[in-house]
C-alpha cells in the first residue's frame, strides 16, 4: 500500500510525522501507524462520522447541532466546539499551538474533514469495486477479495438509527451486496463454482429478496454437477419470494430453471476452451489430492511449482507467492534432506527485473536457507545443478546490498551453468548476474550484454519469461545510453510476448518507460500525466519494492532535470534552492534521505539541510544509483558543499555520456555530463 499500515491495515493520511486512517465499515475508528487513536465518547465519534459522511464537504455548525441532538441544549454550539477541539488533539497531536488544523478544518460556517480518498475504508472500498468493472476476471477477483475484507461489520454501526447516516449506510450496504455477487460471478467465470457456493448460500439466507444471488447459487451448483441441488435452490427461491414478497421469480430465474431441466449446453462452461481448461484443472487437482499423500515430498515440490507460476500473474498472485515461499522452504527443511531443500529453493526461478527487494526480511531468510543448504549438500558433481540454482537464488535475493557475496555467487552460478550447458539454468544465473551488476555507476553497457545473451538464449530454447526479461534489461540499458530507438523496439517486443503469454506485470514497466520517453523528450506536461497514469497501473501490482516513493521521485526528477547544477553556477551562489523543492509530507519510501536536504532547502532551513546532506548513507546499488547521486549533487551545489560535490562527481564519473537515472527504464534527470559540469567539481 502506498502509505504504510494504519489501524485495520488501512492507508493513512499524513499529519505531521504520522498518518491517520479512518474506519466506518463497522464501528467508527481512527488510527495511526502506532495503533488505534482514543476517540473519547459517542459524541466525538458522531462528529467524526458525520464529517466523513459529508465526504470532505463543509457541514455547517447548525446542521451538526441538529444532527447530534434531538432537542439541542442551550450550550450545544459550545459543546460541539469542545468535541472538535478534542478530536483535533487526537488526530493532530504534534500540531504546534495556535497553528491552523490541516485535517479537521474550520471553513466558512462549519467544519470539514479533509481526509484523502484512500484514508477512509469506505471510500477505498468504493474505488476498488469500481475498478473491477473493467478488469479481466483473474485481476478482478483479488481486488474484490481485498475490498470485501475491509468490512468489519455494518457501516457506521453505532449510528444505525441516525437520520444523517441512513442514506450512506444504505448505499454502502447495497454496494457491498453487489460486490459479493460480482465476486461469485467472477469465480464462476474462472471455473471455480465450488468456491462460490458457501458465500452465496450464506448470502441468500441473509438477503432472500436478491434474485441474482439465487440465480448464481443455482448456476454454481449446476456447474459442480449437482443438478438436483440446483433445482432445489430454485424451488426454495420461488417459495421465499412468494411468502416474503408476494411475487413470482423474475424471467432470469425462470429461464435458468428451464435451461437446467433441459441441460442446456450453454450453461456448461466447458463449451468454451478457457473453461474446458478450468474443468481439466479441477479434475486433475482432485485426482492429485486423492492419490498423493498429504505429507508427500512430491506434493511439496508440486506446490513450489504452483507458487512460481502464481508469482508471474502479478498483483495478488505475486503477494501470495511471497507469502507461501518461505513456508515451502521451511517444510522442505523439516525433512532433513538437503537435496530436496535445494530443489524447493531453486525451483523459484521467477525472472526479476527490479533491483530493490519487495520483502527484504523474506530475502534474508531465503538467502540464509540457501547458504545452509549449500553447506549441507553432498560433494561431487552430481549436485552441481542444485548448487548453481542455490547460488543464483543468493545472487537474486541479495540485490541492492553491498555484500561481496552477491557478485561472487552470481559469478559462480554463471560459470557452473555454462559448464553444464543447461539453457534454463544459465538464464536463471544470468538473472542473478544482472542483479549484481550495480557495483558502480556506468555499467549500462555490461547489462546490455546480459540482456542480449538472455534474448538469444531464450529465443533458441523457448524460455519466454526470460526472453521478456532480456527485452526489459535491454530497454533499460539502451535508455541509459540514449538509444531510444532500440529501447522502443525492445518495449514493443516485450509487450507482444506479454500479451501472447499472459504476463500482466510487463505492462507496468513498459508504461513507465513510455512516461520516461516523454520526460526525455522535454515534454514535461505530457510526462507528468503519463507518470500519474503509470502509477495507477502500478497500484496493486504486488511490487512494493518498486512502488514505494516512485511517483513523487519521478515527478521531482522531471523538475530537477531542468535545474541541474551548471557550469555557470558560482561557488558562492550555488543553485537557487527555492526551485524546485520537495514536500516531505509525501511518501518518498526508500528515497527520502536523498530528498530531505532538498526539502529543507526549499523551506529555508539551510543548517538542517547541510546536516541531512552530511548524514546521507551510501547510495544503494540498484537501478536508481545514478538518480540518487544526482539528488545529492543538487543539494551539495545549492549548499556550496565541495566535499559532497566531489563525492557525487566520483560516483557519477563512470557514467559520463549516459542519461542519469534512465537506466531504470522509469525516469531520468538528463545527461550525467551536465551534473558533472559544476565548477566546484570540475576544478578538483
The CATH homology group name of the largest domain:
Tetratricopeptide repeat domain
Based on CA atoms alone, the radius of gyration comes out at: 29 Å
The parts where pLDDT drops under 50 for at least 5 residues are 1-17, 270-274, 566-579
User: What is the average of the pLDDT values?
Assistant: 87
Instruction: Give the overall shape, derived from the CA principal axes.
Output: globular
CATH fold-level assignment of the largest domain: Serine Threonine Protein Phosphatase 5, Tetratricopeptide repeat
**How many individual helices?**
31
The total count of strands amounts to 7
Q: Name the CATH class of the largest domain.
A: Mainly Alpha
Q: Into which percentage range does the β-strand content fall?
A: under 5%
Helix content: 55-70%
Give the secondary structure arrangement, pairings included.
Blueprint: E1 13-15, E2 18-23, E3 29-32, E4 35-36, H1 42-53, E5 59-60, H2 61-68, H3 76-91, E6 104-107, E7 110-113, H4 121-132, H5 137-149, H6 163-189, H7 193-206, H8 211-223, H9 227-245, H10 251-261, H11 273-291, H12 297-311, H13 315-334, H14 338-346, H15 360-376, H16 384-397, H17 405-420, H18 423-435, H19 444-461, H20 464-480, H21 484-501, H22 506-520, H23 524-538, H24 544-547, H25 550-560, H26 592-602, H27 606-614, H28 625-639, H29 642-652, H30 672-675, H31 679-682
Antiparallel strand pairs: 1-2, 2-3, 3-4, 5-7, 6-7
Helix pairs in contact: 1-3, 4-5, 5-6, 6-7, 6-8, 7-8, 8-9, 8-10, 9-10, 12-13, 12-14, 13-14, 14-15, 14-16, 15-16, 16-17, 16-18, 17-18, 18-19, 19-20, 20-21, 21-22, 22-23, 23-25, 26-27, 26-28, 27-28, 28-29
Amino acid at each position: 500500500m502506498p502509505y504504510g499500515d494504519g489501524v485495520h491495515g488501512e492507508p493513512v493520511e499524513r499529519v505531521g510525522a504520522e498518518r491517520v486512517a479512518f474506519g466506518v465499515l463497522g464501528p467508527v475508528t481512527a488510527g495511526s501507524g502506532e495503533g488505534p487513536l482514543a476517540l473519547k465518547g459517542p459524541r466525538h465519534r458522531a462528529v467524526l462520522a458525520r464529517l466523513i459522511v459529508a465526504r470532505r464537504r463543509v457541514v455547517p455548525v447548525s446542521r451538526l447541532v441538529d444532527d447530534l441532538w434531538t432537542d439541542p441544549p442551550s450550550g450545544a454550539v459550545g459543546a460541539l466546539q469542545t468535541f472538535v477541539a478534542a478530536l483535533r488533539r487526537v488526530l493532530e497531536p504534534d500540531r504546534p499551538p495556535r497553528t491552523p488544523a490541516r485535517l479537521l478544518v474550520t471553513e466558512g460556517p462549519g467544519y470539514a474533514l479533509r481526509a484523502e480518498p484512500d484514508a477512509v475504508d469506505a471510500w477505498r472500498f468504493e474505488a476498488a469495486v469500481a475498478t473491477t468493472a473493467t478488469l479481466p476476471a483473474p485481476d478482478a477477483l483479488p481486488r474484490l477479495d481485498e475490498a470485501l475484507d475491509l468490512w468489519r461489520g455494518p457501516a457506521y454501526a453505532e449510528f444505525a438509527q441516525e437520520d444523517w447516516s441512513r442514506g450512506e449506510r444504505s448505499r454502502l450496504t447495497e454496494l457491498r451486496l453487489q460486490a459479493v455477487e460480482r465476486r461469485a460471478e467472477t469465480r464462476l467465470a474462472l471455473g471455480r463454482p465450488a468456491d462460490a457456493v458457501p458465500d452465496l448460500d450464506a448470502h441468500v439466507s441473509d438477503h432472500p429478496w436478491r434474485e441474482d444471488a439465487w440465480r448464481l447459487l443455482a448456476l454454481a451448483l449446476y456447474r459442480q454437477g449437482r443438478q438436483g441441488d440446483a433445482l432445489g435452490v430454485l424451488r426454495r427461491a420461488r417459495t421465499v419470494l412468494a411468502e416474503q414478497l408476494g411475487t413470482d421469480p423474475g424471467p432470469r430465474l425462470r429461464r435458468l430453471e428451464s435451461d437446467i431441466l433441459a441441460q442446456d449446453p450453454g450453461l456448461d462452461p466447458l463449451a468454451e476452451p478457457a473453461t474446458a481448461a478450468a474443468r481439466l484443472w479441477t479434475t486433475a487437482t482432485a485426482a492429485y489430492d486423492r492419490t498423493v499423500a498429504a505429507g508427500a515430498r512430491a506434493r511439496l515440490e508440486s506446490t513450489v511449482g504452483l507458487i512460481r507460476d502464481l508469482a508471474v500473474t502479478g498483483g495478488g498472485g505475486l503477494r501470495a507467492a511471497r507469502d507461501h515461499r518461505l513456508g515451502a522452504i521451511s517444510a522442505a527443511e523439516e525433512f532433513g534432506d538437503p537435496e530436496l531443500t535445494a530443489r524447493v529453493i531453486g525451483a523459484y526461478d521467477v525472472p526479476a527485473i527490479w533491483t530493490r527487494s519487495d520483502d527484504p526480511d523474506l530475502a534474508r531468510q531465503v538467502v540464509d536457507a540457501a547458504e545452509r543448504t549449500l553447506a549441507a549438500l553432498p560433494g561431487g558433481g552430481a549436485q552441481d545443478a542444485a548448487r548453481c540454482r542455490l547460488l543464483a537464488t543468493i545472487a537474486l535475493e541479495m540485490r541492492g546490498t553491498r555484500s561481496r557475496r552477491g557478485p561472487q555467487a552470481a559469478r559462480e552460478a554463471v560459470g557452473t551453468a555454462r559448464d553444464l550447458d543447461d539453457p534454463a539454468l544459465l538464464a536463471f544465473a544470468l538473472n542473478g548476474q544482472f542483479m549484481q551488476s550495480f557495483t558502480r555507476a556506468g555499467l549500462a553497457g555490461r547489462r546490455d550484454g546480459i540482456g542480449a545473451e538472455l534474448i538469444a538464449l531464450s529465443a533458441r530454447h523457448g524460455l519466454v519469461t526470460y526472453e521478456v526479461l532480456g527485452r526489459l534489461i535491454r530497454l533499460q540499458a539502451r535508455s541509459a545510453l540514449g538509444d531510444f530507438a532500440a529501447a522502443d523496439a525492445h518495449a514493443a517486443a516485450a509487450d507482444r510476448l506479454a500479451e501472447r503469454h499472459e504476463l500482466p506485470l510487463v505492462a507496468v514497466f513498459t508504461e513507465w518507460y513510455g512516461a520516461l520517453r516523454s520526460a526525455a523528450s522535454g515534454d514535461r506536461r505530457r510526462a507528468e500525466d503519463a507518470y500519474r497514469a503509470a502509477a495507477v497501473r502500478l497500484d496493486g501490482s504486488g511490487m512494493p519494492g518498486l512502488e514505494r516513493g516512485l511517483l513523487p521521485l519521478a515527478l521531482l526528477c522531471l523538475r530537477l532535470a531542468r535545474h541541474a547544477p551548471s557550469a555557470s553556477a558560482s561557488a558562492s551562489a550555488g543553485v537557487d534552492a527555492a526551485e524546485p523543492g520537495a514536500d516531505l509530507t509525501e511518501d518518498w519510501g526508500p528515497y527520502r534521505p536523498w530528498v530531505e536536504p532538498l526539502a529543507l532547502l526549499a523551506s529555508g532551513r539551510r543548517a538542517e539541510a547541510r546536516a541531512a546532506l552530511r548524514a546521507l548513507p551510501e547510495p544503494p546499488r540498484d537501478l536508481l544509483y545514478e538518480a540518487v547521486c544526482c539528488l545529492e549533487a543538487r543539494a551539495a551545489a545549492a549548499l556550496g558543499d565541495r566535499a559532497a560535490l566531489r563525492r557525487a562527481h566520483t560516483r557519477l564519473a563512470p557514467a559520463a555520456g549516459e542519461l542519469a537515472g534512465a537506466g531504470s527504464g522509469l525516469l531520468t534527470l538528463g545527461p550525467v555530463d551536465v551534473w558533472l559540469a559544476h565548477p566546484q567539481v570540475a576544478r578538483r
